[in-house]
Q: What sequence folds into this?
């Protein structure tokens, strides 16, 4: 019987190895037995340790990440398979459990090829088996790059910078600060304080390392009164020390640290503790070498020629956040860095897209970020919200001009999606004609929202009023801001609407000081930190900042700090709001990283008593600011 | 002996139809992830339910997020009704070289294929009515399956502020919105596969917003 779908599968497979090495009849036998699997972003096809499947896979659309899980928390991307790449071939070679985890990097369609059928038609086909063994051995086979260099069967080479970094020699700290075994702890501590360091190595007469004293040793053993401050260092130090040779690779260094659960490795002349100390490799040194530092990532972004490279850089940034959160680096600092990285990624994506366009932009334009990116509050990957403003043109040219920018918007949003920023559910993106308009159309749009507020306008305003210039001609966004602030003078009713909106989610604590959790749906009994705690703060800050006509501050915490300056009588309230907002964001981010999602919903049971208390403390300022809004905007009867 | 006043005399249906009806006995709805969905499409000689005829039926099955190519159905029907003006849409000629079967045979194969699966079609009412009309012509009863219309489902999945836009939710429009490649458009099997992909993509959107339950899907 005719099977049109099998024909189409056939048309696709025949373009890619190893299927292009088969004759038509054999291939058709396979095609009729293929399963088409739809994978949503984040869906996992198989996990490391899973029993082998009866299929191997080829990507039809989208991309699938292959991870190597070192343990439950640490995952390293081995390869990203794009359309035409095969993966999960281990069961073809050996009946073993999977060694890698395959997860959809974006929405993808994957064909599952039944192994028994494939085997039966490829028996005695030397070319096919040679291909498969190579593909299997490399784990990172990429037909395109291999084809370009004319070497179909290449040996394994590290393919990404992560690999290269891993095999680099670690850069350790040379000539570390040391003290003699006969020194007193006080002397050691003074040395540490003088050199502003967190650890000191204790050495013997031959300068061999015998022990290490860190800040926490002093905290745990001296400050608790276990030992007097004049005690000999040998009483306090951790001993023996872990040592390594000087040409140690970053990957080895990291492994040693994980294995022994330590933060420092002593580098000695012959690699044992019985030779002269040369230096110290700290956990921090390892992180820096791994490229997990913002300067390296930013440089990588600026040089990226393809979306794929941007994606890799942005994934690195995610690891960076993780390590920063662990190190308790202030959130405001992390947020600034990440928004800088997100902006750089967006700018680079626009530059790449502009190269793809036929011809230069017909008129100057500005690319603006909206919502959380506009407020510089994105930490994890979130939805993309963006828009384009272009300079006014003659009415007869508007259609043509808009088409150009819509196309640009489409390119950019598509590559941002590939990088990891989800499409906006509500389609608030620059490829939507409603949000890609000339300056005068934008002015009219905002005037309409302000002067004729309704439910829809308020819903949109929470996204659009936090716009931030990203790329292009900044004078366009400035002109729009000026126009908005002029109109706001006439639109007093607009403030009332915004105020009502800011009050629609009352304090998240119920009568008995219980958290108000979701009542139904799949999120039942989970606490929605975004809508119940973060949004009310964001809304309140926006309303007040618009009222005071402050331009150029989009970040909610910074807005509250500015408000504290403007209104010294309420300084305390605003400062506590700023603090609470930062604490809540951190909560959300940590939850997001722990569960690999947006962190929007919090499972209260998983929080410790202390965390619950901390969370609860953040709601007091929320209550206070909402009361203040009611009075300030006379909302008592309006709500 | 008990007299059952309310029991109507069941006409003598052919075995295959009894088998089809039996599929629906004592079958509670199971998990969505384990349910067999069948996306299907018909190519017809026109849009008049009574006068026009089904020329071909294409169908694919979905379980979980997987479509199995070997569990698909592609039927071409021998019909006396023929309207040259619709040929340019479906490309099926009266005396094609494709193997064609009689309508009754097609019904048999179709019912045996769908069983009690939940049926999915774009603008489902039309396809449903065409099939039902065909069943009635042969003295059978209309389909008992549950139906999902991808056009209706898509509109529901949209963000509330865009729902008012009175756009026509055609299959082509959905494909471009959801980034589904339109190969073999206007062949029954091609459209069935496209409808299946559209359905899976909408489903994943719903899942994200936690609307994924039977009540929502079946419009109860």
A:
């Amino acid at each position: 019987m005719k099977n049109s779908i099998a024909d189409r599968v056939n048309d696709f497979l025949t373009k890619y190895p190893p299927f292009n090495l088969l004759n038509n009849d054999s291939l058709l036998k396979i095609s009729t037995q293929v399963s088409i699997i739809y994978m949503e972003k984040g869906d996992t096809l198989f996990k490391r340790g899973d029993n082998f499947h009866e299929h191997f896979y080829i990507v039809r659309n989208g991309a699938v990440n292959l991870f190597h899980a070192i343990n439950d928390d640490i995952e390293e991307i081995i390869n990203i398979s794009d359309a035409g790449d095969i993966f999960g071939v281990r069961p073809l070679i050996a009946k073993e459990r999977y060694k890698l985890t395959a997860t959809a990097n974006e929405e993808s369609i994957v064909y599952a090829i039944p192994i028994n059928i494939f085997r039966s038609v490829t028996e005695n086909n030397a070319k096919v088996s040679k291909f498969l063994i190579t593909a299997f051995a490399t784990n990172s086979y990429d037909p395109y790059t291999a084809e370009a260099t004319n070497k179909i069967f290449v040996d394994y080479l590290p393919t990404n910078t992560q690999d290269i970094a891993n095999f680099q020699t670690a850069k350790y700290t040379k000539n570390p600060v040391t003290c003699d075994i006969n020194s007193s702890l006080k002397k050691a501590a003074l040395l540490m304080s003088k050199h502003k360091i967190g650890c000191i190595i204790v050495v013997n007469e031959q300068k061999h390392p015998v022990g290490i004293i860190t800040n926490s040793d002093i905290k745990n053993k001296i400050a608790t009164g276990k030992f007097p401050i004049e005690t000999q260092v040998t009483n306090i130090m951790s001993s023996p020390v872990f040592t390594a040779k000087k040409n140690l690779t970053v990957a080895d260094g990291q492994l040693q640290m994980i294995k022994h659960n330590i933060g420092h490795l002593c580098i000695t002349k012959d690699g044992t503790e019985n030779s002269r100390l040369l230096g110290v490799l700290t956990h921090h040194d390892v992180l820096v070498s791994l490229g997990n530092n913002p300067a390296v990532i930013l440089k990588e972004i600026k040089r990226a020629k393809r979306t794929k490279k941007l994606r890799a850089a942005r994934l690195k940034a995610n690891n960076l956040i993780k390590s920063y959160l662990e190190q308790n680096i202030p959130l405001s600092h992390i947020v600034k860095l990440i928004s800088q990285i997100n902006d750089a990624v967006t700018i680079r994506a626009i530059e790449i897209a502009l190269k793809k366009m036929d011809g230069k932009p017909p008129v100057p334009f500005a690319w603006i970020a909206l919502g959380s990116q506009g407020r510089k509050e994105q930490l994890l990957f979130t939805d993309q919200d963006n828009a384009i403003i272009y300079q006014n043109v003659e009415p007869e040219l508007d259609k043509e001009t808009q088409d150009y920018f819509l196309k640009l918007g489409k390119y950019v949003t598509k590559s941002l999606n590939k990088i990891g920023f989800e499409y906006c559910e509500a389609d608030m993106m620059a490829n939507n004609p409603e949000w890609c308009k000339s300056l005068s159309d934008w002015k009219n749009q905002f005037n309409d929202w302000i002067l004729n507020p309704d439910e829809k306008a308020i819903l949109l305003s929470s996204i659009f009023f936090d716009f931030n210039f990203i790329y292009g001609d900044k004078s366009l966004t400035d002109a729009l801001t000026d126009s908005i602030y002029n109109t706001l003078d006439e639109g007093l009713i607009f403030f009332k609407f915004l105020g009502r909106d800011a009050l629609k989610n009352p304090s998240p604590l119920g009568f008995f000081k219980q958290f108000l959790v979701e009542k139904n749906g799949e999120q039942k009994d989970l606490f929605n930190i975004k809508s119940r705690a973060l949004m009310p703060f964001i809304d309140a800050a926006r309303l007040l900042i618009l009222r005071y006509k402050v331009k150029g501050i989009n970040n909610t915490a910074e807005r509250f700090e500015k408000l504290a300056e403007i209104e010294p009588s309420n300084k305390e309230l605003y400062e506590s709001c700023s603090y609470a907002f930062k604490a809540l964001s951190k909560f959300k981010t940590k939850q997001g990283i722990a569960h690999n999602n947006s962190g929007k919903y919090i499972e209260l049971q998983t929080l410790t008593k202390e965390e619950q208390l901390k969370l609860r403390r953040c709601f007091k300022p929320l209550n206070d600011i909402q009361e203040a809004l009611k009075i300030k905007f006379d909302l008592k009867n309006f709500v | 002996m008990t007299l059952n006043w309310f029991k109507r005399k069941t006409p003598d249906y052919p075995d295959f139809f009894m088998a089809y009806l039996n599929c629906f006995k004592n079958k509670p709805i199971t998990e969505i992830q384990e349910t067999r969905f069948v996306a299907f499409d018909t190519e017809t000689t026109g849009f008049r339910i009574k006068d026009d005829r089904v020329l071909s039926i294409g169908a694919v099955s979905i379980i979980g997020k997987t479509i199995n190519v070997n569990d698909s159905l592609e039927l071409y029907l021998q019909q006396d009704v023929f309207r040259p003006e619709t040929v340019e849409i479906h490309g099926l000629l009266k005396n094609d070289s494709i193997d064609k079967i009689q309508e009754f045979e097609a019904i048999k194969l179709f019912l045996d294929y769908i069983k009690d699966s939940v049926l999915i079609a774009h603008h489902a009412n039309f396809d449903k009515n065409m099939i039902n009309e065909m069943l009635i012509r042969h003295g059978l009863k209309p389909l008992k399956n549950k139906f999902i219309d991808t056009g209706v489902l898509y509109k529901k999945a949209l963000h509330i502020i865009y729902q008012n836009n009175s756009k026509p939710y055609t299959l082509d429009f959905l494909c471009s919105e959801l980034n589904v490649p339109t190969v073999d458009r206007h062949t029954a099997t091609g459209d069935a596969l496209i409808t299946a992909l559209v359905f899976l993509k909408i489903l994943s959107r719903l899942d994200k917003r936690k609307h994924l339950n039977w009540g929502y899907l079946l419009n109860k």
Q: What stands out?
A: The longest helix of chain B spans residues 188-208. Strands of chain B lie at 36-44, 54-63, 66-76, 118-121, 147-149. Residues 34-212 of chain B form a domain with the Nucleotidyltransferase; domain 5 fold (CATH 3.30.420.10).
